[in-house]
Structures are given as structure tokens and as C-alpha cells.
Amino acid sequence: MIVIPAIDLHGGRCVRLFRGDPTAETVYDADPVEVAKRFEADGARRLHVVDLDAALGTGSNAEVILAICRNVAVPVQLGGGLRTIDAVEGALEAGAARAILGTSAALNPGFLSEAVEQFHDQVVVAIDVQDGHVMVEGWRKQGPRLEEAVSSLRDAGAPRFLVTSIQQDGTMDGPDLALYERVLSLTELPVIASGGVRKADDVWALRDLGVEAAVVGKALYSGTLQLGEVVRG
Questions:
Q1: pLDDT digits (tens, 9 = 90+) for 101-116
Q2: How far is CA 63 from the centre of its chain?
Q3: pLDDT class for 233, splitting at 50, 70, 90?
Q4: CA–CA dist 150, 184 (Å, integer)
Q5: Which of 19, 71, 171, 232 is the most exposed place for a label (fewest CB within 10 A)?
Q6: Which CATH number fits domain 2-228: 3.20.20.70, 3.40.50.300, 3.40.50.1240, 3.40.50.2000?
Q7: How many CB atoms lie within 10 A of CB 93?
Q8: Paired residues of 216 in beta bridges
Q9: pLDDT tens per residue, range 20-51
Q10: Residue 8 catalytic?
Q11: pLDDT (tens digit, 9 = 90+) per residue, 56-97?
């Protein structure tokens, strides 16, 4: 299992939200490219970049994303507003190794099938969970139930899932182990966990459950977790 540092972009800056709330934002750095380079230097083997402006339909951080992809050698998985085939293609052409599909896939498994047919395992399907449902459109609207979503998205050809516990996201209260255990019981596909990690023991707990990777943000920025603690050579 690997730890994937998160770089969330809002207005060209590196930020973290609390439970996905745009009004509960902490700015950590005005230069996301330097953040990406630091994570790479610290041993990150992949980066998780999300364009919050694109996800919320309020703008784009395309230039910053392009700069990140050009300035690091490690692969970047990119999400936020990728709701058309052209958008997915654009993300990959910008240098992303994987495109993360959220709303578009959850509401339209046919779109996911088309994306997988063209881009294969460069697609990651985001399942953002709150109260047993998948949340869509920047986590502002309730979508299908978790079990229904996993089943339909698996049948549509999802190569892997990125599962976020919205209740735990940005809290550093520990990951929702029950959620990941539930998802792992529903599918044999690889699962990336996101939300709540505070310390190395949280990473090991996720590893022991069997997830493929853990996306970590606030813990790395606040210093409760050092990437060197959980990077394996």
C-alpha cells in the first residue's frame, strides 16, 4: 500500500477543506508546484490533485495543473470537473497519469463505460460517501446508495475506486474503517481510501484492511504525519 499526498487547488492556491465545505477552507501554500516538488522529494510515488474550482463549477486551475505535471516525475491522478470525454482526454494530455471521475460516473455509468473503453486503467472512479449515499456535484447533492453505486460502476467497467468518507474528510479524526471494510466486501477491485488519516497508525490500519492506497492531505500539511514514516523504499 502507498500513501498519496493530496493537493487541492482553489484559486491557484493549495488548500484543504473541512468535510468538503468551501467556506471552511485553510490555505496552506500559494505555490502548489513547489508543494508537489516537496512531496516528490520526500518520497511520494504518486500525487493526488483536485481542481476544486472545476468541481464546483466556479473556475479552473488548468495552468497550475499543467505546471505540476511538467515539474514532477511521479504520476499524477487528477480530479475535479471531469464530466465529458473531452475533459478526460484533456486531463491526460496535460500530463495526468489517471483521471478521476466522480459525478459523471455516479450518475451515468454509460459515460464511465465509454471512458474506460477509451482510456482503460487511466480511469479512477470516485465514490464520495455520506450517510450511506454517494454525493455528487461537489458533494452538494445526494446520489445513489453506496451498494447500488458500487454494483453499477463495477458492471460499467470501473478499474478501481477512490472512496472518500465525507464525514471524516479534513477532520484528522481517523479513517472510517467500517466504510472501507464495507466497500471491500462489495468488490474485488482495488480501493483507494481517503479521509480522516492523522498518523501512521491510521495508514497501517487501512493497509491491514486491504486497501490499495491512502490519499492523505491535512495530516501531511499540519505535520501530524511525515511522509517518511509511511514511505517504503
A1: 987 888 898 999 999 9
A2: 19
A3: very low
A4: 10
A5: 232
A6: 3.20.20.70
A7: 10
A8: 5
A9: 566 666 778 889 999 999 999 999 999 999 99
A10: yes
A11: 888 999 999 999 999 999 999 999 989 999 999 999 999 999
The yes-or-no answer on residue 42 being catalytic is: no
Domain boundaries, the chain: 2-228
DSSP the chain: -EEEEEEEEETTEEEEEETTEEEEEEEEES-HHHHHHHHHHTT-S-EEEEEHHHHHTS---HHHHHHHHHH-SS-EEEESS--SHHHHHHHHHTT-SEEEE-HHHHH-HHHHHHHHHHHGGGEEEEEEEETTEEEETTTTEEEEEHHHHHHHHHHTT-S-EEEEETTTTTT-S---HHHHHHHHHH-SS-EEEES---SHHHHHHHHHHT-SEEEE-HHHHHTSS-HHHH---
Q: Which residue has the cell 474506460?
A: 116
Residue 12 burial (CB count, 10 A):
14
Fill in the amino acid letter for 97: A
